[in-house]
User: Fold these one by one.
Assistant:
Number 1:
Amino acid sequence: MDQPSALEVMQGVEAPPSFNPHGWRRPSRPVVDVPRLFEELQAGSRKALGQAITLVESAKPSDRMLADRLLEMCLAVAGNSVRIGVTGTPGVGKSTLLEALGRHLLEDEGRKIAVLAVDPTSARTHGSILGDKNRMPTLSQHDRAFVRPSPACGALGGVAYQTREVIAVVEAAGYDTVFVETVGVGQSETLVHQMVDCFLLLLLPNSGDELQGIKRGVMELADVIAITKADGSHEIPAKVARQQVINALMYVKGHEPMPDVQLVSSVGATSGMDALWQSIAGFLDRQCAQGAFKARRSDQAVEWMSELFRQRVQISLTAAAYDQKEALAQKVRAGTLMPRPASDQLLQIWQESLLTEGNH
């Protein structure tokens, strides 16, 4: 006798219902009420702050329209914080230093702190770990601190595409001290200098001599420099590194005001954090007294405009030449067309699309 198949429905057993007979639908996200979101943001809602940042970081065209409305409201009340960029090579201790310096500002200065940590994005998977909160447990849980990791998403210069917009959002939420922690890719992280009031460069002991210091392009832009991990067996090398940095700055800065170079340790009693903050505050006070603070912010607003223009031109070019780009890429791969004339053809396609839109 043939055995019944397990796939057949036995007599007396009802057929199982099919999965979601009405069809699966992606749940629709409720439309964002921008005025209400802005009101909750100013009232101190951390949930609203997270939603606002997610909105301004979104690349969806529908979200961009709402984000522009929200940013217009935020910019009207933003600008009342100090913005500090923190950069340095991977492993220099950026997150650890921010945790220690942040504790000092919360406990001794009574400040309200936001940390915008930009995380590198994988070139293969296009994903980011976004794990900087793990290194800032105190700031992540404190009611006067807010830590937000964001993916770089291929943006160069150590920051994300919407970092300026996120700064405006956290300022509208009432945070008076905003740290921007860069990706940490080496010597090219200069874009953050164009969006902060003070540029803090972190260096490791034994990271090179005076010549290596002169070669660091980022050192030309540093407003304050800190040698990290200056404790234990690293204390003497850190002092040597400090003198080497001072020597290099004499060549890099010339007759310009020399930035303070501090020794800091983020462990134990967090030695050097008070002196580091005094250097940052002293730099900002001098900038305000000389009228350079407002001038710097004005120049940054113009640079923001230029950066947005470059982004939108790139988006427009990619959209206009999307169909032809792959065909030209195949010719470049085959070696029948050189990259330069191929790029010229893409540019011509974009220009023709602009003329067509203008005629309509």
Number 2:
Amino acid sequence: MSTITIDDVVKEADSFLKHNPELISASINRAESTLDKYTKPLTKVKGQFPQGHTLLSNVVQGFDANWNELGATQIEHKILKNYHQKVNFAIVPAEILSSYWAELYAEGKKPEDMPISKYIIEKELLPKVIDDLAHLEVKGVFDAGDLGTFGKSMNGIEKILADLLAAVPGTDHTPFKIPIQALTDTNIVDQVTEYEKLIPSKLKSKIKILFMSENNAERYQLQYEEQFGQNQFQKDALKTRLGKRMIVGIPGMETDDIFATTENNFRRLIDVFDGKPQITDIQKQDYKVKFFMEFWKGYDFLINELVLISNYADAEHGLGSQALNQKYYGFDGVTVP
């Protein structure tokens, strides 16, 4: 095995993948991220996800024998974006032989029980892909002109929320802003409670989860237990005081954004044909074995107006205009000039 050739590795890897056709997708799916766990899949074709939602005005009225038409339909449109990802991973087998033998020794296996291709794919390639995706899902910022630089192949949740907050009412689909004070170690429970109080009445029963950074979820838990004691109101300090909503901390998120939406509105985007992660080719070049992988990845909200985001900038409460607040939620809200 110590005199293994490049051709040996390529042939072995081809055979290994043919006998394990679901290995790549299954491994990545098992490593379910926080965002994957709390989003619903949405399947479309080739990266574009055109979506529409319908707004109906009131239709119920008192009965009399005359036709009196009541109710109007308005359809709003949004294009959701998915991102085509690739992995071009090269490895020099001679450089990992010592690690490979050490792994076999530690696990008490024979080479025939764990081929080097299995080691390369399962111990080297897949863990790094999973780690990179965990970063991209939160901190990625898409740049079509610089796709070869890590971090620029998709928009992560921080960028998605930043773009929502920057949306201009009347020209973009705006989120629902909830004004609260900047978070501190001593006010985070009160501010999350204030956030809950300001959820529009039409959505209160439909909001089951509040998302925030993992760090702020930990701050909330600590301050809740310090302020009330763990068992005074509820056993779980990672549920909110008012709606007993689950608090989900997103690992790697560094902003203070708190956001929530309805159960089916937060989506992970899956492509019909190319969505399943897979190794598409294995080639040799000089001393290297080159692995080619492709898949699609993306997150978005179907309806921005159903996304509730904390607002630390000013007192604006709602969708940015009284007309939009009335259209979606039936109240004026507070708008800031």
Number 3:
Amino acid sequence: MFDEIKDKIIQGIRRAEYTIWIAVAWFTDIDIYIELILRKIDGVNVRIITSDEPTNQTLIADFERNFELVKVPKKGFNRLHNKFCIIDLEYVMHGSYNWSNTAPNNNETWATALDRDFVKNFTDEFMNLFVNNYERY
């Protein structure tokens, strides 16, 4: 839960057979992006929800070209703060870890849950974020 989080995320992505749905506030990690491209090439559906802020601009254009993308705008002090990934609607990876270049240097958490109701709750949250922010872009 506390060590080698980036490797755990990449392993989860590599296991995906059908869908990868990501809601993560900060996403600038090129290695994780490349893994997502490889899964897309294999036919896996990839959807990304991320924060529409200057810090994320590094990969936003690539996300827009390659995946279904929703950018959530900052509203005053409120911003997207989620950090989770749903794989094949079967399990969810979640924690405090942003998918950023600086995240491996922080003390972060990351866990995986297989509980069907738990995964459903994250899936409902993902769909809510996706649908309620999709029309803006």
